[in-house]
Amino acid sequence: MPLRVTFLGTSGAIPTTDRNPSGIFVSREGEQLLFDAGEGTQRQMMRFGTGFSISQLFVTHLHGDHVLGIPGLLQTMAFNDREEPLAIHTPRGTRRQLKSFVNALDNRPSFPVRISEIGDGDVAYRADEYEVRAFETDHDTRSVGYALVEDDRKGRFDRERAEELGVPVGPKFSTLHEGEPVELEDGTVVDPEQVVGESRPGRSIVYTGDTRPTAAAIEVADEPDLLIHDATFADDRADRAAETAHSTARQAAEIANRANADRLALMHVSSRYAGQTEDHEKQAREVFDGEAFVPDDGDELEIPYPDS
After folding, report:
1. Distance from CA of residue 73 to its chain's centroid?
2. Catalytic annotation, residues
3. Burial class (CB in 10 A: 0-12, 13-18, 19+), 287
4. pLDDT confidence bin for 108, thresholds 50/70/90
5. Which of 46, 100, 144, 184 is most exposed, with minimal Cβ within 10 Å?
6. CB under 8 Å to 241, separation ≥6 — which residues?
7. Pseudo-torsion of CA 169, 172, 178, 180, nearest 10°?
8. Taking phi first (over 0 means left), then psi (-120 to 50 degrees means alpha), and beta for anything else, what does residue 17 get?
9. Is residue 304 over pLDDT 80?
């Protein structure tokens, strides 16, 4: 079951010739989700071939570099005769502002747009086999981060052991794998615990949006496979990061270490660094034991199962 992340925009507040403002596209088993939509997001979606069939849009906060792409994206969806509703999730206290922005210039989408407010600890979206949770972040406006967390998967079915116990090949295998006991012809009862291993963890992605370092990013998911964290500045501007409610690459790496993340994507890189992100990666790798990298716009990342 593929879980793929496409980095549509990796720049800080100001776009550069190489980096668009914030936008993260996630595809899971055919369902498409978008996290933030900075200026030019729809063009990035065309450029990198993601398509526009998103069902959910998760907004971390209402600063322009995270939302200026929304009106144009909705207008393009309408031009393409979209009929399916779009759900937009936004921090508590910002629904009215976002609704006005969506309808700017009297632009009324021709399809249903449902805007809901979410806060720390809320499940913003529940789907089959996974959910998207909101968590508190520390920015200079109302803001949240999001974590996509899959449900635990069934344990592995031990077919050889089942046959040894006399279970005939067929429907009883599925019954046992679903957690129900079966009775054999001789009256023997075989319990699932005899042939099914322990449940296996699903995958998880944590996206902070803009934030100072916060413990909530550590607690929202158990050992995330990918942490996408604000890393606007390198060490040379740590004071500026604190003043503007952002993080440095080193601070992002410290959060990743404490969260036991597998990989760390350093996001929202200030335009002052242009294409020079070596210090970001170097400083993060001095702290983080896993893989730390600054993604380029258009980079795709496949998230494997932890036990694959």
Report:
1. 20
2. 65
3. middle
4. confident
5. 100
6. 212, 232, 233, 247, 248, 251
7. -140
8. alpha
9. yes
Q: Supply the pLDDT for residue 115.
A: 97
Structure tokens at 216: 């909530």
Residue 153: is its pLDDT beyond 90? no
Spatial neighbors of 223 by CB under 8 A, at least 6 apart, are 201, 204, 259, 260, 261, 262, 306
> How high is the mean pLDDT of the chain?
94
Residue 122 vs residue 185, higher pLDDT = 122
Average pLDDT over residues 187-208: 90
Sequence-ordered strand ranges (E) for the chain: 3-9, 23-28, 31-35, 54-58, 86-91, 113-118, 123-127, 130-136, 144-150, 182-183, 189-190, 204-207, 226-230, 263-267, 291-293, 300-302
3-state secondary structure of 301: strand
* Exposed e or buried b per residue across 186-207, where buried means at least 16 C-beta atoms within 10 angstroms of its C-beta: eeeebebeebbeeeebbbbbbb
Nearest to 217 by CA among 134, 150, 293: 134
| Residue 196: per-residue pLDDT | 78
Residue 105 is which amino acid? Answer: L
pLDDT at 26: 98
3-class DSSP state of 278:
helix
270, 232 Cβ separation under 8 angstroms: yes
30: left (phi over 0), alpha (psi -120 to 50) or beta: left
The DSSP line for 183-214 is E-TTS-EE-GGGTB---B---EEEE--S-B--
256: three-class secondary structure by DSSP = helix
pLDDT one-digit tens code per residue, 236-251: 999 999 999 999 999 9
